[in-house]
Amino acid sequence: MSSEFWIIQTFNGLSYGALLFLLASGLSLIFGVMRVVNLAHGSYFMLGGYVGLSVVWRTGSFAAAVLAGGVAIGLIGIGMERLFLRRLPGQTLGQVLMTIGFALIFQDLALLIWGGDPYSIPVPRFLQGAVKAGALSFPAYRIFIIVVAVVVAALLWLALDQTRAGARIRAAVDDGEMAQGVGINVPVLSLAVFALGACLAAAGGVIGGAFLGVYPGADFEVLPYAFVVVIVGGLGSLPGAMVGSLLVGLLDNFGKALFPELSYFTLFAPMALILALRPTGLFGRA
Amino acid sequence: MSRRTIALFALAAFLLALVAGLGTPTARAQSGPIKIGFLSPLTGAASALGKDMLNGTELYLDEIGRTVAGRKIELIVEDTEGNTQTALTKARKLVDQDHVHILSGGLLASTGYAIHPFAEAQKIPTTYPVMSSDDLTQRKPAKWVVRTGWNSSQSTHALGDWVIKNTKYRKIATVAADYAFGWESVGGFQRTFEEGGGQIIQKVWVPLNTNDFAPFLSQVKRDSDAVFAVFFGKLALQFMKEYENSGLKGRVPLLSNGTTVDESVLPQMGDEALGTISTLHYSAALENPTNQRFAKAFEAKAGKIPSYYAETCYTNARWIAEAIKAVSGKVEDREALLAALRKVELKDFPRGPVKIDTFGNPVQNVYIRKVERVGGKLQNTVFFTYPNVSQFWKYNPEEYLKAPLYTRDYPPCKAC
Amino acid sequence: MTRRPGVLVGVAVVVVAAAAVAPWLPSYPLTLLTQAMIVAILAMSLDVLLGFTGLPSLGHAAYFGVAAYAVAILTTERQSGFVVCLIAGVVFAAVAAALFGLIAIRATGTYFLMITLALGMVVWGLAFRWVSLTKGDNGISGVPRPDLGLPWSFWGPLPFFYFSLVCAVVALALLGLIVASPFGMSLKGIRESESRMRILGYNVWLHKYLAFVIAGTFAGFSGVLWAYYNGFVSPVDVQLVTSVEALLMVALGGQGTLLGPAVGAALIVFLKNFVSVYTKRWLLILGAVYIGVILFAPRGLAGAFHRRSS
What 3-state class would DSSP assign to B173? Predict the structure, then answer.
């Protein structure tokens, strides 16, 4: 294998991992604060993509699409949490099953509204083309995804680390009861985190929609990846989500390039292995 | 009333409705309607294709006023939900409960293999307009199943031949969906291409659940004369995009099977698809009068140009109607109906002339097409026609069947 | 399920009634009932794990699928008979559960959910990509109905219905005995409070592990029947959605009652197949039903009928 091969594959793995970070960071945070396993998270990604698609068709603006997708699905997330999930405090299984019910409903609604044809969100003009370095060519759009993920990661980190709100979130992740006892409004915090997670996933869906496309079935196609990232990185941990998405992006890419017959095995087997050795994931806490 | 009582009543009512709805056998009568059972994925990932299939079928039936040989036609459509287990259950419902006279439809290859034994056991005349697995009419034919569509390697045999005779491409890399349809399509192409002196220098197989094509396309040998691709649906869309993004477009010419640029996905593609040379037994841009009429009518009904899924189901519906006419509407005589299905032979389907070979597969034109932009829209312009192409290409069927079925490893990639 | 004789009588009545009515049912509802019974075994097996031991598994379809594939491969490649396939299927499922249980039992609650999800995905990945063994996405078709040397051919819906009924009753009886035994009681104790059981001197890990293996074994039994019923096995049988459906059947029917999940399974089979005949929006309705049940009948149907004695 030439050095070109390794460079290109690493780059591809990084860009895919970047997209996964957008998808999975929200899932990890939601779990961290609310201990909810949200199986509708893939649906947020897909719905975000569909909303973004409609906005692009109407306005031609990619930025508006990302914003609209994020906001719309954020609102749906708020609705889900406030009106439904909140009625089942502490019931792990009940909440999981409820999110599945929603996933099914979202899947059907998407089919009803947008039909079953696969679409692709057009890449904005200034992001088309590729950056050339010698014989290698790096698509500008993938560089964009990496940049976006890095910026989002940095913002999240800063917010969690440096702001009061972030400190409250970290407190709630550490020990929800204690945080409530100290006067932190955990329910409002939960709502905010849930909305943020949904928002991120949806924005990821719009951004992903330009190179993965938007189509029925994208929700359950992308959901296992989100879970692998979160499981490997550790539930509730932002650094975990970063490391996890990088790892998964690279593993998946190299796995498919080097061992195509075992492509899903190279992804899930390491995940099972990590879980066997450290059930809470690399950075997670029990 | 307590919640418990309400729940009990609801349950009882539900069960009663169930039994009433399911338990009433429908009357069978010689002069009653002719029932066609149609399986199609109306929900799930393949629902756009299922809709095309249904629209094509309904278009034809409406054109003949849903009447053949003096009897009304009743089309009973069941949703396979895009999965074979459900398709089987619904097939049972169509045959056992609705007492259909003919079973038709289906999309997935696995559905084709699963319904084969079912049709044989039930002795119900069945047609497959879409399912194209080679072996269904080769080493594993079913007496009661007639294909009115195509088989996977039928058109790719032709493309391999065309490439040898009309281009200088002699070293080709294949990139195909990693399942039977992909293997068979590549196998057909490889066989005629290599027999003519070409060499397949690389085979890249892409798993069905893939969304990021980068790891696969980055492996494609850049010194290939051309790439032969086999995809469908959203995979085709993603493949085309990545073909452009990975720098292959413009550097390595693209050849493909028919579904990769089928009209079900072509409108969603952009300029990245231009110039792709593909092969199929149909194109919406065919200029014969039947097709032009059909395409216009389909567009009026469905709001989009017809894909091959639509045409094959339109032709399938007409095929069934012709068979019914041949038995003067006496569809209760299943053996006679089956025999009639195997004898239909017409020259003016939208795709051209079609007849059935002894194995139950169509013999028809195969078109070599190129993606062009005409009138602002992308289309598959036909520029070469191979007439009378059978599933065995030009080989003797007995010799052909002695060789194994095209799989991932057959024909072997000697130059890989 | 308790030791109340009333429940046993009720079950017996339903079974006899079903057996008596069957010959008069048209074959489509009959095949749906058959399907319901086979899936009921799966739901009951999951109930042992979830309802009785308190361990929610998101990967239970793995054992179901392993057994189904075992049957499919043996019948199509080696033309193996029913007994061989039954034993092989159940054993493979048990072995898979034994292996996976070692990894999974270390966790509880959400982490258990995640680990079982991961393990389920490993099996799915294998089914999907190990094409030389499983034929991948195409699935394995042509699985014949079992030939037990009886005068009635199991190709007919009625004989196979009786066969499935017998199997379901056997499974129910065995599982009922297990959960009513002292072992079963300890499981319930573990569900209520692990720490208390530990203090009382029970080997909690071993109990949970055995429950996991038992659940997997019976899921395998269900998988064997499923392969024979459909004549076809594909990666859909081990995908996440299938595991989720099993969970929903248990939740719908009522955890910890064995009979509840069996009824839940029947309801979901009918819902999926019946509703989709009348509307394309069956998925929406299904999702709404799940949400409704969780919100308004969290104890499931069984809970709505009688208060569970703890």
Answer: strand
ipTM: 0.87
Q: How many CB atoms lie within 10 A of CB B374?
A: 9
The CATH code for residues B28-150+288-360 is 3.40.50.2300
State whether residue C99 sits within 8 Å of chain A by CB. Answer: no
Question: Is A236 a domain residue?
Answer: no
Whether residue A225 lies inside any domain: the answer is no
Residue B13 reports pLDDT greater than 60: no
* Cα gap A50→A52, rounded to integer Å: 5
pLDDT recorded at residue A234: 82
Q: C230 Cβ partners below 8 Å, 6+ apart?
A: B85, B88, B114, C143
User: Which pTM was predicted?
Assistant: 0.89
Residue A37 domain flag = yes
Closest to A217 in 3D by CA, of B96, C3, B46, C35: B46
pLDDT attached to residue B322? 95
* Chains B & C: contacts with CB separation below 8 Å: 108
Q: What are the domain boundaries of chain C? A: 6-140+168-305
What's the CA gap between B187 and B409, in Å, rounded? 9
Q: Where are the domains of chain B?
A: 28-150+288-360, 153-280+365-402
A254/B contact by beta carbon, under 8 A: yes
- The model's pLDDT over C203-258, given as tens digits with 9 standing for 90+, comes to 889 999 999 999 999 999 999 999 999 989 999 999 988 998 999 899 888 888 88
Say whether B79 and C32 touch across the interface (CB within 8 A).
no
Domain B28-150+288-360 matches domain B153-280+365-402 at the CATH topology level: yes
The string of DSSP letters for B131-157 reads ---GGGGTTS--TTEEESS--HHHHHH
Does C6 score more than 80 pLDDT? no
Instruction: Select the residue of B47, B219, B270 nearest A216 (Cβ to Cβ).
Output: B47
DSSP C298: T
Contacts (Cβ under 8 Å, ≥6 apart) of C6: none
Of C115, C122, C295, the CB nearest to A279: C115
3-state helix, strand, coil in chain A (%, to 5): 75, 5, 20
> Hunting for tokens 């270390």 — which residue is that?
C106
B18: confidence class by pLDDT, cuts 50, 70, 90 = low
Per-residue pLDDT, A231: 82
Pairing outcome for strands B71-79 and B34-40? parallel
CB atoms within 10 A of CB C165: 17
Q: Say yes or no for a CB contact (<8 Å) between A93 and C58.
A: no
Strand segments, DSSP code E, in chain A are 130-133, 136-139
| In CATH, B153-280+365-402 is 3.40.50.2300 | yes
Place of tokens 């191979």: B386
Cis amide leading into C144 (omega within 30): no
Tokens for A72, please give them.
């719309």
Q: What is the pLDDT of residues C273-301, one digit of tens each?
A: 888 888 888 889 989 988 988 888 777 77
Give me the domain span that covers residue A107: 21-216
Total domains in chain A come to 1
For the structural domain made of C6-140+168-305, what CATH number should be given? 1.10.3470
For chain C, say whether A224 makes contact (Cβ under 8 Å).
yes
Nearest to B121 among C31, C155, C236 (CB): C155
Q: Is B164 helix (H, G, I), strand (E, B) or coil?
A: helix
One-letter amino acid of C177:
L
Phi-psi region of B136 (alpha: psi -120 to 50; beta: other; left: phi over 0): alpha
Enumerate residues 6+ apart whose C-beta is below 8 A from B267.
B304, B305, B377, B378
DSSP secondary structure code for residue B261 in this structure: G
Q: What is the DSSP string of B347-403?
A: EEETTEEEEE-TTS-EEEEEEEEEEEEETTEEEEEEEEEEEEE-TTTTS-HHHHHHS
